Request: fold
Amino acid sequence: MKIRETLNSGKFRIMAILILTTGILAIPLIAMQFTHEVKWNLTDFMVAGALLLSTGLAIELVIRNLKTGTLRTIILLVILLVLFLIWAELAVGIFGTPFAGS
Reply:
């Protein structure tokens, strides 16, 4: 029972968010070592890190405050949808805003 309590603790989930964010940011960093097609600068890493970290922390906030139910699921899906839309806009400019990366 102690393992389950540890896995459900807020400290463990926040540590998992930090590790997952670092892992995702490591992918383009490693890719930059092998190809010239991936060209991220410090600003790109900072924006992506802030976006991933804020998404993870928003999900943690929803998990802590809403125990179960349809509302919790809908809010989590909306958070992920917003993440993917912002990421796509920054990458290729699907909406044509001035923040588009293309």
Remarks:
- The longest helix spans residues 10-34.
- Helices lie at 2-7, 10-34, 42-65, 70-92.
